[in-house]
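Batch 3, record 17
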Amino acid sequence: MQSEVKSLNEECGIFGVWGTPDAARLTYIGLFALQHRGQEGAGITVNHDGELRTKRGFGLLTDVFDSPNAVANLDGDAAIGHVRYSTAGSNLLENIQPLPFNFSDTQFALAHNGNLTNAISIRKQLEDRGAIYHSSSDTENLMHLIRLSQAPDLDGQVKEALNIIKGGFAYLIITKDRLYAALDPNGFRPLVVGQLPNGAYVVCSETCALDAVGAKFKFDVQPGQLIKIDDTGITIDQYTDDTQLSICSMEFIYFARPDSDIYGVNVHSARKRMGAMLAKEQPADADIVTGVPNSSLSAAMGYAEAAGLPYEMGLVKNQYSARTFIEPTQELREQGVNMKLSAVKGVVKGKRVVLVDDSIVRGTTSRRIVKLLKDAGAASVHLRIASPPLRYPCFYGIDIQHASELIAANHSIEEMRQIFDADSLGFLSVDSLIKAVNLKTNAPNKGLCVAYFDGKYPTPLYDYQKEYDRDQAQLHAAKMR
Amino acid sequence: MQSEVKSLNEECGIFGVWGTPDAARLTYIGLFALQHRGQEGAGITVNHDGELRTKRGFGLLTDVFDSPNAVANLDGDAAIGHVRYSTAGSNLLENIQPLPFNFSDTQFALAHNGNLTNAISIRKQLEDRGAIYHSSSDTENLMHLIRLSQAPDLDGQVKEALNIIKGGFAYLIITKDRLYAALDPNGFRPLVVGQLPNGAYVVCSETCALDAVGAKFKFDVQPGQLIKIDDTGITIDQYTDDTQLSICSMEFIYFARPDSDIYGVNVHSARKRMGAMLAKEQPADADIVTGVPNSSLSAAMGYAEAAGLPYEMGLVKNQYSARTFIEPTQELREQGVNMKLSAVKGVVKGKRVVLVDDSIVRGTTSRRIVKLLKDAGAASVHLRIASPPLRYPCFYGIDIQHASELIAANHSIEEMRQIFDADSLGFLSVDSLIKAVNLKTNAPNKGLCVAYFDGKYPTPLYDYQKEYDRDQAQLHAAKMR
Amino acid sequence: MQSEVKSLNEECGIFGVWGTPDAARLTYIGLFALQHRGQEGAGITVNHDGELRTKRGFGLLTDVFDSPNAVANLDGDAAIGHVRYSTAGSNLLENIQPLPFNFSDTQFALAHNGNLTNAISIRKQLEDRGAIYHSSSDTENLMHLIRLSQAPDLDGQVKEALNIIKGGFAYLIITKDRLYAALDPNGFRPLVVGQLPNGAYVVCSETCALDAVGAKFKFDVQPGQLIKIDDTGITIDQYTDDTQLSICSMEFIYFARPDSDIYGVNVHSARKRMGAMLAKEQPADADIVTGVPNSSLSAAMGYAEAAGLPYEMGLVKNQYSARTFIEPTQELREQGVNMKLSAVKGVVKGKRVVLVDDSIVRGTTSRRIVKLLKDAGAASVHLRIASPPLRYPCFYGIDIQHASELIAANHSIEEMRQIFDADSLGFLSVDSLIKAVNLKTNAPNKGLCVAYFDGKYPTPLYDYQKEYDRDQAQLHAAKMR
Amino acid sequence: MQSEVKSLNEECGIFGVWGTPDAARLTYIGLFALQHRGQEGAGITVNHDGELRTKRGFGLLTDVFDSPNAVANLDGDAAIGHVRYSTAGSNLLENIQPLPFNFSDTQFALAHNGNLTNAISIRKQLEDRGAIYHSSSDTENLMHLIRLSQAPDLDGQVKEALNIIKGGFAYLIITKDRLYAALDPNGFRPLVVGQLPNGAYVVCSETCALDAVGAKFKFDVQPGQLIKIDDTGITIDQYTDDTQLSICSMEFIYFARPDSDIYGVNVHSARKRMGAMLAKEQPADADIVTGVPNSSLSAAMGYAEAAGLPYEMGLVKNQYSARTFIEPTQELREQGVNMKLSAVKGVVKGKRVVLVDDSIVRGTTSRRIVKLLKDAGAASVHLRIASPPLRYPCFYGIDIQHASELIAANHSIEEMRQIFDADSLGFLSVDSLIKAVNLKTNAPNKGLCVAYFDGKYPTPLYDYQKEYDRDQAQLHAAKMR
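Prediction for the assembled complex:
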């Protein structure tokens, strides 16, 4: 399912390129392939003969760049870009990235995917020393730290700054003469490097953006790496050796595009395997299998294949639903008005349906989809979730900050089944998830972060620890009642 | 595939409702479900206590109604609406429908899906008598004919006017006290009636719009019918008995949404059957089957099931591609830049792929998709088209007016295979198409218009006959050379 | 004072040119000089190699043509344009002029300043014969009448049509090969012809527009004339000989720009003479004379000069007041908040002030200005109006349709003085007005229409007669009470 | 004349209010009266229950606040606002004021009229210590200096910061609980305090804004003062005692509105006296006197009165000229096309005209206006300038930074007369200017800054000294050649 429906949001997609004509257009095209990672803001900074120019605004990429000239005006040979879903940082233009910084003698622009866990304490400390922040975004901290660093050169300053910030982050930094890319020590977020036919390097969140711009995949950026690209080529460095891969498992489950590969694993195929394992763990006595479009279709195919059941188009999603300002009233909604999803009566009528969804956050949409199928005549609906129950918040870049928002943190599986009015309900186990993704690494959980499922965070929580403890205590108290 | 890619465009979707609060919002929601039928203009006319108010503009529905108030301002209990792809009538606001007409003592608004074949001669005749046309659209003729009719009441005037116009048309007419819906004598375009829980009647192009607004399907409007809905209920009348069903087969093949039913036949299921029959008629020695998203997925599933091959996600379509002002340059395009479709390497690499598409018009995209799959590593690509070769123009509402635009009118199947660089190419036969749709009627071709495939038009061509003859002669001459 | 403040509005300014490069830009510049004649809509139709293209919209010229390209896109050698204040015809885009008409084989566009008195009955008659009107504007009638005329050529058709319409009108008509200009038989509205250095002819409402475009004044169009301009030059014809000049005296009093000449009389100079005669008829015991900016300054100078008193800047008008969306609340207004006019304390404090205004319509602003001066410390305010009391409606193109709106129709001069809280109040006599303007003609009232002052309309009122009788009866009854 | 025509621009108008409902609307109205001080950007910051919200944008106030809601959305009891003409700081939204600053625990917004002379060196110094600037505007320096101050409370921090910056400045600072207003030690820019009927204090650039909002004038802010307004009332303090009044004489000559009083002197009356003294110093053998609208009208009246000549309306300015995107082409301009000014032929024809202008900067418009009058038939044109020749740049807030731009710095009076094609040319002397303004003070030049006329700057030039020396050397060298 798509972000407007599921209340689970990735904060960002990032894209950068150095050394190719029409860099802003290429960045637009790359970001267009990453639009699923953020729909609330977008921006591009171009390097025009050493001068940085930024255009950014609210909404989809097509809202911000709303005429053919909008990109053509950003002439230059290098660029970075960003699509954004807001987590930290409220709804101000100043928070839309790339964040541009103009000094008397130089310029910077920053784009960031992730969430810093010690942003609040760094900001407080620096403001006490006279610093002025442009934005309310955690991203800006890195710029202040770079400028305050006493290291002798920019490479050293950037490294020093990266060692101070904590959490999940993939950063792009562009200056008049170079492009940096940096990944946090756990590699929570994906970041890949590719190369255009003309030799120019591209760095971006997902391989689907490499494909979109015609770039060849070169390598996945590793935890703790600092990449520098300039007119002399590419340099790979480590700003820290204290690293351990724990990439966000939700990238495989829901966020990433099915055609992307992450650390060599194709996302669609991983999802198909999740679906297949789900069929083994949570079989159902049914006639057909259908998925919630679009993100659950791969898992549904895998389930159908493994279960030996027909894979069907039981639900249709309106292709134009990315933007509408007009919503049904509550009254209309109750009368069955639905602008985004429709059940295909001719397919589901009289059938026992396995409905595969990728994950459940608040559970509000699950209930609506089950109803949609039953109203269309489904004989029974067996809801199968191709991931484990989401029970803990994430502090590394996914927009769930309180367990209280998560239905699985508050209810048993049987309670959820009743709430959704499903005939049966089953989730994938954490072990099967790890096996389905199957990263080639010896890191714990085979390199996956599964903290939202088991609560075992791979790093300290810093500024969030108190809030987390309070949240857990409340949850515990609620369950006692 | 979607209209931006395939140069094959339906002109319109229409929606009307009488006797329910918030009629404009409901019409918006209905049109939103019909947006696939026209993306270049949209409008709504509301009846506010007997006064008609119209808002219309260029672009998607969300462009025209670009704020929550845009619909809220159209307060009233009845409304008609229109989404438009332009055929006849150039790019002027005056041509966006509904067309509003204000007389000293009354008002009308018209919305129309289809194409009139005698519009030019009617207009010339009326202008010679002093008539002034607002628009360059063929739709307006009906209004003039109604006003010039000497029949004693409006019912009679509308019927008289409907008997003068020729071609394919589904019309909605709203006045201060009623809503008319009329279908041409061949029923070239779909038109259905439904009913809301509160009893109000809805009339619209496809059943998917009924589902979207929570209305129950009542009946398909029949060729030659004139429906009247007012505060006393619904009246079904015939303005002519000289009728014979020949609904556009492209509605089943490509235009209509998979969740719609037309004359009782579910579109997705019909497409699945086309795919299955295609597998029998045009088998291929392959490993996987994949469809061109979104319109060919049903046929691809049917092909895979019938062929006993795995159905796979070999191509991914960018969900945000409905609107972008920025395009790759020709240079970038040649470097493999693609903003709308991506091949999933992890799926197709090394595989012999059956690629199912619903139809081929100009053939330009077919070539690009075959290349996309081969670049992603497909061992071979067997292109299968779930409809017969398009060889003749349409004059009843599809935007193909010259055979010279159609690749299949100009090339043999083997020539096309070479042009597309496919390893093999096969089309569905006309007979199988008719069997797959399988309408319950004794009309010729089981009620389907297949003139684009066989050139046998079910009506005279009137104003288009000369142009058609010239076009065919040119084609013939070209082949002789 | 300016139209936003005084509720007295001219409907239109018109401008046309034939045979010069960049005709739309010239028309824009001409209309810009006529903007004071209408601020609610504007449009330009250009003739591009025989094809007519129209751009029109709501608001000021600068709102409609809101980018440098807006005019550049209208490429062509001939054009007509219009600025509009709405009288007849409600607030619809369709009513913004020029009104474009597209026939199968030809095109027209019409621009009109004035008001037809038999528009309603013509429309009713034509609609009964099947005619469809685009707009609710009275302007459109002429087009229908031209098309319905049986005269053998266009010249004859236009003349026939002009003889059917009644009231005040200056019309411009552009076609693929000519430009017509026509004036009503009374010449209610001004219309002049000029010539550019390159020989091209210009026709427009006021000579200030000729000056703005660098054209030399040639002649005033006479009542009943039909001018034709085409590639062969200019032709002057009469469509009727039953004419008698009675140009609207409000053009001299208030509407026209001070730098314009009408029938050889400079408007500023005429106003100065009105002021001078007012000083003789209505002297005042005072220290200084000040005018209400901007339209009353000429009369105030004349008054000061004749009275031998210093002319002073006692009031200042905000230069930016043409457009603001933000208004003071009623509460703020009562606290003395004023966004448009300020009194200059340093000038008026302790002084006995003669305040000259050009005319009084509803009287609401007069009261406010007297208060403004007194709050600024004026010892006394002697209000002098450089025109007679407005007591009757106008049906020839000024937006006063009911005597009940006119304070002077409802109150004696002493009552008005008390309402305005002025220390004295005096108006100019009708005789002095006629003498001050002093047109060189033997027509009654020396060619001026003074019907708003004396109720003697120079033509029948046609469709308005009943309404006028009712209005006068009400007024009479109100006075009886 | 108005700023679009004369290349002489004030940077700003500022307005602040504390403790009244609907503070943003009042600020809008106040800024509307100050719009003549800056047309390129505008903004308002409102204090909504202690939270600051800012809306700002490019263009006129009516462009930024382009709907009734635009101000209504800024709900609060205190506000500051700014209209801007850019000097220092390029064309970026970040430079539009008020500049908002958000700290973790507090907020500020700054609005500034003037120009700092040591901004560049302060910025460099602070950036070297790690500071990051939001804008390229000199205004921002104050915020950094306040935050870096070690003073124990905000009052002290603000004072410390004000003592570091140099140049001409009137600052408004709003926080959650107070409003500061500060004036530079020379009082280069005007700043006044008034009080609303409800007791709330207003501080703004000119008294015309007090009149506009219905506030009573209380006092002129004195050089070196720091005013604090909060819920307990108003506090007047000095941040330095090293002060000496030298207010910009161009405020009296050209910038300020005629209805404003500065240090007790009415601007219109001062201009009238300049005109009268000019008549004595530079008499002319002429028939009439006319001024260039609007800023020279007062001086023209004074000249006419003193010379005993009739004051006439020889030039008319288009009231709508504040905004147009369409300009005459160079070709049209040469044909006499003029969109902003017209000569009144009926007035000037055959007359010997004294043309009074307030000042001459580049001289381009003077030449055009003389030509306009002669083309309209003036027998001779005697150009009289109601101020001394502008020969030196200004560094305190007027946009002339190079003497090379000034025609009077490069040419003798006779040379200028020839360039303008005037029959005679005369300027006011510096002594008469000082006498005409006649401020009640013992400061040098009676408290006026006349450095643009005599080159004697009342303060060191700091960062501008080098540039000034280079400019003067070039000028000297050019004259030697």
